[in-house]
Amino acid sequence: MNETNNPLLTDTSQKLRKEMTPEEKHLWYDFLKKLPVTIHRQKVMGNYIVDFYCASAKIVIELDGAQHYFAENKLYDKKRNDFLEESGIKVLRYSNLELNKNFDGVCADILRHIPPHPSRKA
Q1: What is the pTM of this model?
Q2: Which of 122, 116, 112 is nearest to 59 (CA)?
Q3: Which domains, and CATH codes, for the chain?
Q4: How many DSSP H helices and E strands does the chain contain?
Q5: C-alpha distances out from residue 22 to 17, 96, 97, 105, Å
Q6: Distance, CA of 3 to CA of 103 (rounded, Å)
Q7: What is the per-residue pLDDT across 11-69, written as a single tens digit (0 to 9) for each?
Q8: Using CA atoms, how far apart are residues 50 and 84, in angstroms rounded to an integer?
Q9: What's the number of CA atoms in the CB half-sphere (13 Å) around residue 109?
């Protein structure tokens, strides 16, 4: 199995792309999709599906709804973060509340982690 592609999760990731949360749609259509770098939505990475992945910057962007604050989900998120970080990928996490209240700040923070692109002013 390819380290970044678990075929058992492909159907789930495709379904998640079609059924994005309102916050995921907002971040995708109003910011990430317009960037001059490729961003993948609901990307399978090992045994996990991440919300957004930018290979050129080696970052994962996660939007956390209320379910992420339950103990069992915190443990799952930690395991996933550990796997990604061991693979050399930085995980950026933002709560849905943060995205809704400070969209521009979240976007600015994401940009700080993406290297300048020739068509984008640094």
Answers
A1: 0.82
A2: 112
A3: 7-112 (3.40.960.10)
A4: 5, 4
A5: 12, 9, 12, 18
A6: 33
A7: 666 767 778 899 999 999 999 999 999 999 999 888 888 999 999 999 999 998 766 56
A8: 10
A9: 15
